[in-house]
Write a structure and sequence with these properties.
The protein is an alpha+beta fold. Helix content is 27%, strand content 7%. The protein starts with 11 loop residues before the first strand and ends with a helix.
Length: 81
């Protein structure tokens, strides 16, 4: 995954929720960010969208990767970036 984002100017990670499997203790988005230097954004997707407000410029590409509810983030970001 680190190679995938190596050229990104900014990388943010949000909480990860299991999809039926047991979570891996001690390893989630917060720990991932602590180990990589990326920015952890805790809270609901609404909280994340509010945290990201004003952090982007015209021409920036915002890419949200994941499964499940992360698809809602693009709608929540409309008009905030």
């Amino acid at each position: 995954i680190l190679h995938s984002v190596a050229l990104a100017d900014k990388v943010y990670a949000v909480d990860v929720y299991p999809a039926g499997e047991k979570p891996i203790e001690g390893y989630g988005a917060k720990e991932f960010c602590e180990q990589t230097g990326y920015t952890y954004l805790p809270g609901s997707l609404e909280d994340v969208a509010n945290s990201l407000a004003g952090k982007f410029e015209a021409g920036d590409l915002v890419l949200a990767l994941g499964a499940g509810s992360i698809v809602k983030l693009s709608q929540l970001l409309k008009g905030k970036i």
